[in-house]
Every structure is written in structure tokens, then in C-alpha cells.
């Protein structure tokens, strides 16, 4: 394991409680010796996410996500190994020993970017509040309704109308021009370096822990069309736009307590909402929402309200993002603001209570899509009615939930006077086509899976599963069991597990699972490790193993019966294997 020494990692995992940590992100229920819940890494309705408190491992039988407490935190927080270890160490009260040079370099690189960004935010904030250069920007913010306490809380700043103000400041602190260019604070042209943000109000973008990831910058004079209204930091070592949400660091507790979030489009929308007590608002850093953002929101609440202006809400890119939210298990509702008004303008004009009333009048995503489809249509025209009917049926086809689909089918039939039988016929046809496409898409994978399995009876496959589970869980039986086995005795998709255990007889799944470089092997190992154990199986393992030996012997014997069609080398191997199995003594204890 690169980085912190293995002994500390083992100590950390022994001290930590994976059930407690995972429970901070999702609801778990006891299921046998394990715990189960809805997987946070993919959308599902039936819990397939398992946590084994004894082995301190998790595994999802739906999507294959799995690992230990460290890999869980890395995945769900989108963080590095070292950062995850630090969080868990603080949680259990352990002090981390010195890292090796490689990890020190990686950690220092990220920490250095955070330090530069935090320093930059303070620099811009100081200029806004304390320097003559920030006078106009401060007046602009006061006019927009921001008070000094708001400016300090949100660390708003001002980038002066200068080519080198930030550059000179950061260079004086010991930072190199090129590294500042790499993280997007400084621009470069023909070998010359200069400030990226000039004469703009600065909005620092924070992660959920309150560290500065990046910056958004807005022009003060909106009438100046020669400049883009907003400039934003590029993606960097620490910042991925599609994996973050502006304002989540301030909103997360309110989102969790209210069980819903509100997504707005801009920085000022969010800040104004928070000023008026609507403190579960965040901004999407662009209207095209991503799967990562959906999963991020789902950690805190199950419902999301979309409060974009009318044009943005109806845009095709926005619609794709809303579908992503829904496909990740979020209930999506659309807030319809008055024409030509964004949340910032509306809240300032009408107040927070009026905006909350708009939330009550919001539309579920499907209703909003129907509203958009019928907008500006002339239903007296036959072509319009035909086109609308086809689009409405297409909308129904893409509703995954059967009950929801039927409810909307009835609703559409009644509202638009479309024959129910016609809707049912076209809907069934479309669903069949959709199902066929899905099957065609998965055919290759299914065929490969079948090809990777030997043609063995179901009973031997079940017994094989039990044996592999016991070999992973019980190092004490490995020597006795493995001396009778060859990897060829197992189905192809399990042979790599047997081969690995043969080569690594001291393998401990709890301590060593993250050392596996083969991702597919790791996934399959976790699936076996986390599966519930039946105490009856443990007690009768000798009988079960004997059945496996007998089944394999039958298979080998059948193969030997056709020895005329077998090469000499293969025949010798079959005979040796048959002899090995025949030496098994059922009375041998396990």
C-alpha cells in the first residue's frame, strides 16, 4: 500500500466502525449478521448494498461497488486515500505517522492548491472591504442587497482592474507563475503572465468542508457587452465542476433537516436565498446537471426543487440534467417563476415567504415536461395533435416506474382526449422496442458470461460458491482443501479467485482486499466475503466438500470415457487429477 505504513492502516480499520461511518450517508437495517441499505453509488429501489461489520467491508450486489471503510469514504466524498485516512483517523482519535515521499508529494500538491486558493480569497476579500480599489464593487454589492456581514460570511471579493495585482501578491508569497497559471488564477499569452480576473466581483466556490476549490467572477457593469458576464476557474487538481455544487457547504445541514434541496442557476440566486432564510439552496455551476451532482444531493435529501429562470428550465441541456436527477432516485419538482425573473430578483421583490409558496405550486418533472410539450401549440391543427400524441407516448415510454407510467397514461388520455386503447397499444409497442434494444445492448455481456462458465449442473455451482466463500473466510481450512483442488475444477469466472488464494494462502480479506490490483478479482472477492454465512454450512462443510469432490470426479470420469478424442498430455493431467481426488478421505475434519 503506497503511503502510510500498513500497520497503521490495520490499526485504523480495527479502531473504526464501518457501520457507523456508512450510516452517516445512508440508512442501514440489520440483515442477519450484516446490514443492508440502498446503494449510494447507483439508483435502486431494492436494497443490495451490504455492510459486514465483522470484516469491516461493504459490497453492492447491484453495481459491484465494494471495499473497506477507507475506499468507501474515498468513493462517496470523491477524495484521496490520504485525505480519507485523515478523516477516519480524526474520527477515532489516532495520530497519523509520517507519510512516505510519494504520498507526501501528492498530499502537498493538493494542500498547496488549497492554500493558494484560500490566500487568494482572502486577498480579494480584503481589497473589497478595505482598499480604495474595491469602492465601486462594494457599492455594487450593497446595491444588490448584500451587507458587510454577508460579504464576510461568503468571502466575496474584488479583483482590481489591474493586470498583475494578484500575480505580484502571490509571487511575493513564494509561489511560481506557472503553477498559478496551472490552477487557473493567472492567464498566459506569448510567454507573459497576467491576472485572469480583472475588475470583477469574486465568488469563491467551496467544497462541503469549506475549503476554496475555485472562483467565479462577475463583471460590475452589466451593460459592458465587450466582456463575458461571468468568468470561472478551469478544472484543476482539486476542482471538477460537475462534481460540486455552489453553496452546499452552507446548505447541507438545512437540506438534511428539510429533506429537500433547491437548485438555482447563479451565485447571487443562492446567496440572496440564504439571506432570506431559504438556506437549503445551491447552484449547479452550469445548468447541465451530472450524475455526480445527483449522488451528492442524494446524500442529504430525497427531493430536489429546480428554480431556474423560465428559459433555462426549458432548455434541452437542462432537461437532460433533470432526467439524471430522477434516474438517480431523486424526486424532482420544477418551480415556475414569473417570466423574465430569476430567483434573486423574485425573492428580493416578493420576499422569502412568497418564494416558499412557489415551492408548494411546483410541478413534478413529468407534469413539467407535459407543460413544455403543449406550450405554444395549436391543437386545431391535425399535424399538431399527431405530433403531440407521439411525443406524449414517447414520454410515457421513458417512465421507468410502472405505477407512475399508468397514472400519467390515464391523465394524458383524459386531458388531451386521446383514446386509452390507442395509448395502451402504442405504449406496449414502444416498451417492447425499448426492452429489445436493452436486451440487444446486453446480449454480448450475457453471452460472454455464459461462455465463461463451464457446463456444470446447478448443484455443483451452488456447492462451488459455498467452497469459495469458506476459503475466503476461513484461512484455517485452506491447506486441507487446496491440496485436493485444481483451478480447472471451478467455473472459469471463479478460477482467478482460487488461483489467487493458492498463491497467497495467508490472504486476509479484511486487511488485504485493497492490495488487489485486479479490479474484477477484487469485486468478486468482496461479493463472496460480504455474503451472509449460514452457520449450518460451516458445521457441515466436510459433507459439502465431499459432494463437490464427487461431482468433479464424475465430470472427470465422463471426460476419461471419451479418451480417444483427448491429447496425451491432457489425458495424463485428467488421470493425475482423478487420482488426487480419489485420495480424499471424507473423514478428514474441517
UniProtKB/TrEMBL annotation:
InterPro entries: DNA_primase_core_N_sf (IPR037068), DNA_primase_DnaB-bd (IPR019475), DNA_primase_DnaG (IPR006295), DNA_primase_Znf_CHC2 (IPR036977), DnaG_bac (IPR030846), DNAG_N (IPR013264), DnaG_primase (IPR050219), TOPRIM_DnaG_bac (IPR034151). One of its GO terms (cellular component) is primosome complex. The keyword Nucleotidyltransferase applies. Keywords: DNA replication, DNA-binding, DNA-directed RNA polymerase, Magnesium, Metal-binding, Nucleotidyltransferase, Primosome, Transcription, Transferase, Zinc, Zinc-finger. Its EC number is 2.7.7.101. A zinc finger (CHC2-type) spans 39-63. Residues 434-455 are annotated as: Disordered. GO terms for molecular function: DNA binding; DNA-directed RNA polymerase activity; zinc ion binding. Contains an N-terminal zinc-binding domain, a central core domain that contains the primase activity, and a C-terminal DnaB-binding domain. This is DNA primase. The gene is dnaG.
